[in-house]
Design a protein that fits this description.
Elements (H helix, E strand, L loop, with lengths): L3 E4 L7 H12 L4 E4 L4 E6 L3 H11 L8 E3 L15 H10 L4 E6 L14 E5 L4 H10 L3 E2 L14 H8 L5 E4 L10 E4 L6 E4 L5 H8 L3 E2 L28 E6 L2 H17 L4 E5 L12 E3 L6 H17 L4 E5 L5 H13 L4 E3 L1
Helix pairs in contact: 1-4, 8-9
The structure holds threonylcarbamoyladenylate (TXA) and magnesium ion.
Threonylcarbamoyladenylate (TXA) binds next to strand 5, strand 6 and strand 10.
Length: 350
């Protein structure tokens, strides 16, 4: 299949391009598109064949459910069988935006889309291209992140091209995304609302709106590889660069010393070594290939850059990646959730 790559200016959206992309989706094709979090791989969420095609294009296990994207809250009523007051409050506060809510599903949603579950994850993105595409398609768009299963999520159209060229009909290139981490997922189908996947919208931001919530322990970094996560997708190996990756955590000067020692040791073995650091620590690593994820004091910069840095390490054929950790803030912990998986939970504490 030939994949079309079409630039779209989000400030001046070409409606004829969007109409064509929407038509493709409605008829069962796959179109990758930007959202404010990461690029999504979109198909008709009400068509079981589209969902199967999404799993095939990603090489994703079919028990890993997809998120339905809508452009208007009215579309929710036909997709779910119950909307609690808590859900209403969360939607008032955070939609459109990087928050996904899990509801009991209605009959309309095929089980192919929900990986066999009787619940459905729904989100209203904020990105103007995503919203226009959903409107033009006239159906809810099922969209996982547009990466091959297991690889870092795409934050640029070129990342989608790397993974999906020849596998899908169209990629809408809306430039680099803003946030760079996938949405926060909240399960509203049990008793107390529970964060299944941390993201840009943090626990305390949510608690300000609805009071106490739980966090699925399997979604937090520490020892979580042994727990069974409630979001099926969280159990798979994820975000992994081809390089062997090690994280070093602890007091700043000790972290620098240990990373330097490891880098030297690996370089002497003939490995191509790269260090992921921060602006604050950059000078410490001047003898090595060190790339900055941003200012430690600005975790949103680190969230924005992380997946790109993991992909660039692959493109540059890095053998060994060494990285600092970022657990000081809530958003930093969302970053750590991805970084721990990328490193296969390989972390050294100094
Ligand atoms: O920001 C995002 O959420 C992006 C953009 C494209 O919207 N999408 C995304 O989708 O990250 P994906 O498929 O890569 O991740 C969806 C996660 C998976 O971990 C999946 O298991 C979980 O959501 N999920 C989906 N439906 C669920 C459900 N009914 N119950 C529990 N977890 C669910
Ligand atoms: Mg994903």
């Amino acid at each position: 299949m030939k994949t079309e790559l079409i630039p779209v200016n989000q400030e001046n959206i070409d409606i004829s391009v969007m109409a064509r992309a929407g038509e493709l989706i409605r008829r069962g094709g796959l179109v990758a598109f930007p959202t404010e979090t990461v690029y999504g791989l979109g198909g008709n969420g009400l068509n079981p064949h589209s969902s199967k095609a999404i799993y095939a294009a990603k090489g994703r296990p079919s028990d890993n459910p997809l998120i339905l994207h809508i452009a208007d809250r009215n579309e929710l009523y036909s997709l779910v069988s119950e909307i609690s007051e808590t859900a209403e409050k969360l939607m008032d506060a955070f939609w459109p935006g990087p928050m996904t809510l899990v509801f009991p599903k209605s009959e309309l949603v095929p089980t192919e889309t929900t990986g066999g579950l009787d619940t459905v994850a729904v989100r209203m993105p904020r990105h103007p291209i995503a919203l226009e595409l959903i409107r033009m398609a006239g159906v809810p768009i099922a969209a996982p992140s547009a990466n091959t299963s297991g690889r870092p999520s795409p934050t640029r159209a070129s990342h989608v091209w790397e993974d999906m060229e020849g596998r899908i009909e169209m990629i809408l290139d809306g430039g680099e995304v803003g946030i760079g981490l996938e949405s926060t997922i909240i399960d509203l189908t049990g008793g107390i609302p529970t964060i299944l996947r941390p993201g840009y919208i943090t626990q305390s931001m949510i608690e300000e709106v609805i009071g106490h919530i739980e966090v699925d322990k399997a979604s937090t970094g520490e020892n979580s590889e042994h727990l069974r996560p409630k979001a099926p997708g969280m159990k798979y190996r994820h975000y992994a660069p081809r390089a062997e990756m090690t994280l070093v955590s602890g007091e700043h000067t000790k972290v620098c010393e240990r990373i330097l020692a490891l880098a030297l040791e690996q370089r002497n073995r003939g490995n191509k070594v790269r260090i992921i650091c921060t602006e604050e620590s950059r000078s410490c690593f001047s003898e090595f290939d060190a790339v900055s994820a941003g200012f430690r004091s600005h975790p949103e910069m680190i969230a924005h850059n992380l997946f790109r840095l993991l992909r660039e390490a692959d493109l540059d054929e890095v053998d060994v990646l060494l990285s600092e950790t970022f657990e000081e803030t809530e958003l930093g912990n969302s970053v750590m959730n991805r970084l721990m998986k990328a490193a296969g939970y390989h972390i050294i504490r100094v």
